[in-house]
Amino acid sequence: MSEGNEKFVQDNNQQVGSSSEDPSPKEGAGSEKRQQKLSKAERIALRNQANSENSLVSKIDYLSVHDDTTQNFGEYHLIQSQAVAASASRVFSSVSSLNKDRVGEQVWIRARVDTIRPKGRSAFLVLRQSQYTLQAVVSESDRVSRQMVKWISKEVGEECILDIYGNVVEATVKSCSQHDVELQVWKLYIVSKVKGRLPIRVEDAGRPEWQEGVHVLRDTRLDNRVLDLRVPSQQAIFRIQSGVCQLFREILLREGFIEIHSPKIIAGASEGGAEVFKLNYFGQNACLAQSPQLYKQMAICADLDRVFEIGPVFRAENSYTHRHLCEFTGLDIEMAIRDHYFEVVDVLERLFIGIFEGIRQRFANEIELVQQKFQISPITYLPPGQNPRLHFPEAVQLLRENGYVIEDLEDLSSENEKALGKIIKEKYGTDFYTLASYPASVRPFYTMPKADDSRYSNSFDMFIRGEEIVSGAQRIHDWDLLESRVKAKNIPLSSIEDYMNAFLYGAPPHGGAGIGLERVVMLYLGVGNIRECSMFPRDPKRLRP
Amino acid sequence: MSEGNEKFVQDNNQQVGSSSEDPSPKEGAGSEKRQQKLSKAERIALRNQANSENSLVSKIDYLSVHDDTTQNFGEYHLIQSQAVAASASRVFSSVSSLNKDRVGEQVWIRARVDTIRPKGRSAFLVLRQSQYTLQAVVSESDRVSRQMVKWISKEVGEECILDIYGNVVEATVKSCSQHDVELQVWKLYIVSKVKGRLPIRVEDAGRPEWQEGVHVLRDTRLDNRVLDLRVPSQQAIFRIQSGVCQLFREILLREGFIEIHSPKIIAGASEGGAEVFKLNYFGQNACLAQSPQLYKQMAICADLDRVFEIGPVFRAENSYTHRHLCEFTGLDIEMAIRDHYFEVVDVLERLFIGIFEGIRQRFANEIELVQQKFQISPITYLPPGQNPRLHFPEAVQLLRENGYVIEDLEDLSSENEKALGKIIKEKYGTDFYTLASYPASVRPFYTMPKADDSRYSNSFDMFIRGEEIVSGAQRIHDWDLLESRVKAKNIPLSSIEDYMNAFLYGAPPHGGAGIGLERVVMLYLGVGNIRECSMFPRDPKRLRP
């Protein structure tokens, strides 16, 4: 990289002269136009003035940087809304907007220093703004004093935030996202500095495992998550995560759902399990909801008809695996059905394929960044309605045919799930499929038994690449049947009294499903560890940051 | 109401004959067409057959109801996905879709019984589907046996869920949302029954305070929230709430924000306050986040640039007022700013006016339902940028001019806020305005002090009708200044170590705001109590349902 940089830097220096004469600046070109028209003598005078003044650089008022007589480098006073109003006199350009079309423009950008490399009478910076990077070069010239270059080399470090005013010039910078331009720096101010030493370098945190160089352990990255999240591929993951949520909602609103918010602090255990976080609620025993399950069903009993919720769910499960978190974001749906729980599967299939397609279209750049780092291939799927739906006994048979040992009514192990994923991929050509009619014994008490064989249930899981992304079912809407299931599972009726009562007053047939947002993102992108897809993950060993 | 009903019922009976001869049924008219062509003799034979068979009504298979030989009334077997696939052979119409344009059609609907009134050889039902109601009439006729009417009068109670097949006829039913049609019932099946007695009647729960009749206390309603939520105006509130969330996101995504999910279980107290819910996290002390404040700021330090979050926030505050909840849905934003925190206010003003306008346009029907019940007028506001922004000293002066007593650096009491709301409404003609530059002493430690007068801060609240809906500020992004404020407020640095560290590595100037979803809905609609806008509210006295 460094060699390539040097080469183009020379090209760049040659271009500086011509582009600074460019008579048609397109943006932010108010007072700059005047400055361009200064005679050479005036410029030298200005430069000398700066040189003498800046032996001790004092702090700069950010409101004055448009003024030609203001020093063209330095550190701002703390930005404290000193301006009279919000009206920014400067127009800032985004790094991502800078490309060949804007060559010859003078622009303001505010960006972070990814790397800085002083070299003789120049300094070469890579600037970073979210997942976009741009090279900037400060070289001693008519506009730029030796003092300025020296000051920058000394004062500007990695992860500083800068305001830079400069000239967009053509260049080839393969290592930056903006690979056909660079910025020739005319003014440079420090907005925010790093205090002390960086615990990890962002460049190291972002280095793919397969690439030579310094690597930072995941735990160290997560300990310093604020720095780690600045890695462009990490930024991309969270932009995609945001996109998944938005597509989830867009599609469900289109399907007639409304969004609800159910309580997270509840009396009793949300699904009767033991793995709950307990708390004291003004003297009463309470716990954190393990899912919105009971409340979303109550919303259906309250005639909201089709509901979804996006919210945290809490599992006090002492599992330390690549796919478990103790707090994650649940994507939940619940809907009245007319006849059959496959009505829910139909919605989910449209939903997921809508999400897959939407992400592919809206976040192509982000997917590429993540895939570059993790070296993974995109998932395959068929159009809605064409992805296989196997019933549990069929899956058992497929596994047996392929030499796996499994009991009829036993849940699938992770290994068997993975194996089944491969078998189905080979047979049907898709990474995405549904497995239905699970044994009743491996599903929660509220799952509707199969009408003609109560050993099985009206339940399903959906998979990507052999890993479960959704779990759902028809729910029992009949109070008597529900009561018998609660008793059979030895759950104290008193612990779910409010839930039970909801089925006394005429409950509609209904079904739904629960999805883990982080898991969907992990499996869609093939990232390999769920912690990469949680901004500040929580597992049995991690409560911070 | 009953008189009107009787009158139109007679009209209806006259229309039956003609509409059953209608040669152009538009929907669900497969097998029905055949049935219409039965001769009178055949019909009578069918009717007699039914009469003799139905002395003891057995349960009906819901897959068979299209079959002419199946009894045309009864209770279904439990719907347990008996159908082979999701393909519903029946097309159901929504209650809201039935109007004059569909007169003469035969339709299936699945709806709940709002009220039922047997009367001689007829029974009059009001059917309810979410916020829509429709009158249905069963009258003895060629198609409907006396036995059927008797059975319905005996077996069908309020809040039952029914499948009804019937003929849409013209009628005037002022008391129903579908006021120009009613359904003449040909087939009726019970999908789901009520078990035991209803603890409250939905009609009573929905009765406006100003209207004569039985009223249900709010606490009783909330104790039976699943029934209470079936009230059309309550349904409307939650559809509007869902709409507010969606508009919030749509507008912020357009403004370049992304959605994040910050952890709710945190080590230490989220803002250093005492009013937190504590819990045990695998042997470590933890608590529930009082807001996403610290984490959304960390997301900005991690270069996510503009973020929002919709999620639960938890306040162990022993306040029992009309506007406090112990768990509510926070709408939070945080953004890097260039120069001034009014950049945040600009975004928020566009956001709120976008929400107000969006709700008005998309939920006109729902707003009307709520306003009918609570007898409130819509709020007034000016276009974005034109709503007043007062600085705190100006507000103090306005209050003093109007005879209120207030110290220079004292926070506004609720009474003073309300008074100010009235003064501003009178002076500027808007219910919506911003109050900025609060005294530093009444704002949290992370609030940026005013540059030229540190007694004040770069903070603001936004109001509707004199009640705060948003609280926001520029945040301190400088570690040293932040540290001095933390110390001044006697917060142990160790309790917010991760947060503090985020400011060591070059933090951008930023600001943001927090909003309570339930409060926005309450104030926009003028509902008067925040519990009406929380599906399952939590206050110091209420942990259930």
UniProtKB/TrEMBL annotation, chains A, B:
GO MF annotation, one: RNA binding
E.C. numbers: 6.1.1.12
Top-rank lineage group of the source organism: Eukaryota
Sequence ranges of Basic and acidic residues compositional bias: 23-39
Aminoacyl-transfer RNA synthetases class-II family profile domain residues: 238-545
Catalytic activity: tRNA(Asp) + L-aspartate + ATP = L-aspartyl-tRNA(Asp) + AMP + diphosphate
Region (Disordered): 1-39
PANTHER family: ASPARTATE--TRNA LIGASE, CYTOPLASMIC, ASPARTYL-TRNA SYNTHETASE
The family this protein is said to belong to: Belongs to the class-II aminoacyl-tRNA synthetase family. Type 2 subfamily.
HAMAP family the record matches: Asp_tRNA_synth_type2
The protein, known as: aspartate--tRNA ligase
Organism expressing this protein natively: Galdieria yellowstonensis
